[in-house]
Amino acid sequence: MYRVDVYYICKVLVDVPTFIVLPMVFITIAYWMIGMYPDVTAFFIAAAIIVLVTNAAVSFGYFISCAAGTENLALALAPTCIIPLMLFGGFFLNSGTVPKYFLWLAYISWFKYGNEALAVNQWRHISHINCTTSVSCPRDGQAVLRQLNFHEDNLNFDIVMLFVLIVAFRVLAFIALAIRARRK
Prior knowledge:
Strand content: under 5%
């Protein structure tokens, strides 16, 4: 009934408010409840990062949905693709220990960029950590970032890369949808 480009643009535009408001509600509650760094600027940076990560994940979902022919295929493909991105994104493996031949997975992972950006936003302001256990603790936020192999200088790069992933996945989704529509 509609051209593919009109349908796709309208679908994306209609979804944008949802994928901005819901992450903002989530981070507004969670940020202060968890006890993150109590600064309004740090909060808004964290909120922007969460919105970008959400939209990158949604964009990937668009891509998988448009590329797969059926719902069952999309449901089978999504975890198969997401788990390696999560694994090499810094949640389960320290980013400094990822083998060189898997580094490309980290570069297309919104988990990596979001994780590093949120960690930098949280820890760069912490000048002292009180350690109440006998286990050795990092002394300050910079030590935490070094331990995680995250770099404070990468904050802007991480944010830009989240935008790049959003655009790239949405363009790929549009191309996949256009190809699927042309076949029919």
